[in-house]
Amino acid sequence: MKKTGSQILLECLQREGVDTVFGYPGGTVINIYHDLADYPIRHILTRHEQAAVHAADGYARTTGKVGVAIATSGPGATNTVTGIATAYMDSVPLVVITGQVPTPLIGNDAFQEVDIIGITRSITKHNYLVQDIQDLARIVKQAFYIARTGRPGPVLIDLPKDVQIQSTPFEYPDKVEMRGYKPTYSGNLRQVEKAANLIMTARKPVIYVGGGASGADASEELLAFAEMTRIPVTTTLLGMAVFPQRHTQSLGMLGMHGTYYANMAVTNADLLIAVGSRFDDRVTGKISSFAPHAKIIHIDIDPTSIKKNVRVDLPIVGDLKDVLKKLADALEKRSDQLPALIDTMEPWREEIDAWKRGYPMTYQSSDSVIKPQYVIEQLRELCSEDAIVTTEVGQHQMWTAQFFAFSRPRTFLTSGGLGTMGYGLPAALGAQVAFPDRQVIDISGDGSFQMNSQELATLVQYGLPVKIAILNNQYLGMVRQWQELFFDRHYSQTRMELPIDFVKLAEAYGATGFSASRPDQVREVIRKAFETPGPVIMEFKVDREENVMPMVPAGAAINEMVLAS
Amino acid sequence: MKHTISVLVENEFGVLTRVAGLFSGRGFNIESLSVAPTLDPSASRMTIVTSGDDRILEQINKQLNKLIDTIKVTDFTGQDYVEREMALVKVTAEEDTRAEVLRIVDIFRAKVVDVTARSYTLEITGAPTKLNAVIDLLRPMGIKELVRSGPVVMGRGL
């Protein structure tokens, strides 16, 4: 039976198991939207295309499935760009579908025409312009396959309006054949054996875990490997929820705003086992002083991540689940030597414990003004154990990383690579759509929140009970902090002069708002917010000039930390 | 150090931009690039001359392989291969230099492909070093125009 291009697209989505899409209609996707009602696919209408992509991203990061977003051509397509780049930097599997002007008009500067393939080439894992309806089913199949396999990432399909209208017999390909794309999943056993040997001779090893371990769902394998060797574990921002932060072996986050003890451990380590991490500059600081005494084992699915920023002594390309399992097996074979190994590492554990005791992650508490770190601690204490937390970008994001103590994988959604302000609210929206019965909290600053606050309307329309905590300091706090420390307190354009009434803003959208300006109100506001059905804004008027500490100044080595301002 | 890399890619629209974009986006250098379909019309062969240290070359190799449309990447550096490039040179040929130009053509087994009263257009094929040598010899006579194809390469033997 013949089907139109838009029907074929929707048919393919259904076969890929897509039950939810996020999007925004427009002239060149009107046919898709017309046919959408005939398919068992839920569409969430966001108030901005950027938010649709972030929501699909939040959906993908929490479920592990491919997130799908739809936007029209021209401005609809360009509005997806920040969302796509965010997902690309953090390796999130997405398929983004954009409408395009009819093929005869492409290149004519037609109304709402933009070369979105050209624009997104460097921020997608791959992208397609569908020029022939005969290619459509194959392209959709490939797009989903590429998005979720190997190192995951966003794939964009640009679908001209005339291709949506044409019709052809529909046939869904059963398999994907691409001679140029064959990701390596199985870790090389000889390399794994070498890694096991390096571990057996290490005296000061550290495991350094990144977001790849989340994407690979490797937290169980990681925990097993870490516990059998008792090697301390530090994580990046995106790796935080992969390893329980309250575990005795946890060193918390490393890098610019990491813990003193994580940075000291890495600097003094003789073996660094990098697991799905990419040696980002916010992690390494001055690259020549990063882990200067350590041999480096780098396990990653993406060969281009290996030796990109640092020298690597032993690369292992493969799926982290597979490699960590094999590594545990290889160590199991040496189980008679393991107790001796653990014993020889005792001085190392003592050294780390001394750093932990000497310089714990802490802050100056107050009875008169709300400390932002206190809010994070109270949110953690009062929320449910399986709550999903998103953040925007800035000081509140770092305080969340430092003080929330995540314990379950896929519960912490944050824009680590691109650092996108305005990510958290739509990502929370997507997470809440995926898990309607779980608690979803967006921790925000007053600056970031205003970048996508229109999504309050979407939350209310669909009855999505996201709880939003705004740490309001009426500053672009992170930039202000840099201005304070490195630019003689010249607060150029970082004062958010106009005080916003966030309670009224919530009410304007039909949501609920609470505000706290004293420390003794914090718990009460959180409790009330968690008990109130529907979306709620909790505004906390926090200490305006609190800084995120400790801190590695830009360009310094990670053991050269400023501990307090 | 200079490297000659041969990349087999899907013969699809936009592939050239993907490869070129990869180089410009990561600050890698392209000295020359030539592209044409292969015996199998669904694939194209790109020959790229680039330079950089070992670390950069490793990244270029990996990043090229990472492109979905890339089928195979071969770095010919250190291997036994045949390398050929073609140049078209329009050189001034006045009364006093016409004979000298033709002598150079003869020595280097070049070809005259267009003649006017005041110029010759030459076709020269060979390794890039040979082309450089010819161009250096012709330069004093006055090169009006020069077009080089960039080299193509093939491994020796079966």
Core attributes:
heterodimer; A: 565 residues; 6-stranded parallel sheet; 24 helices; globular; B: 158 residues; alpha+beta; 5-stranded antiparallel sheet; 4-stranded antiparallel sheet
What topology emerges from the helices and strands here?
The complex is a heterodimer of chains A (565) and B (158).
Chain A: E1 2-4, H1 5-15, E2 20-23, H2 30-36, E3 42-45, H3 49-63, E4 67-71, H4 75-79, H5 81-89, E5 94-100, H6 116-120, E6 126-129, H7 136-148, E7 154-160, H8 161-165, E8 167-169, H9 189-201, E9 205-209, H10 212-215, H11 219-229, E10 233-235, E11 250-253, H12 260-268, E12 271-275, H13 281-284, E13 295-300, E14 314-317, H14 320-332, H15 338-344, H16 346-358, H17 372-382, E15 388-391, H18 395-403, E16 412-413, H19 424-434, E17 440-445, H20 446-449, H21 456-461, E18 467-472, H22 477-486, H23 502-508, E19 512-516, H24 522-531, E20 536-541
Parallel strand pairs in A: 2-3, 2-4, 4-5, 5-7, 6-7, 9-10, 9-12, 10-11, 12-13, 13-14, 15-16, 15-17, 17-18, 18-20, 19-20
Antiparallel strand pairs in A: 1-8
Helix pairs in contact in A: 1-2, 1-7, 3-5, 3-19, 9-14, 11-14, 12-16, 17-18, 17-24
Chain B: E1 2-10, H1 15-25, E2 29-37, E3 43-51, H2 54-66, E4 70-75, E5 81-92, H3 98-107, E6 111-115, E7 119-126, H4 128-138, E8 143-148, E9 152-155
Antiparallel strand pairs in B: 1-3, 1-4, 2-3, 5-7, 5-8, 5-9, 6-7
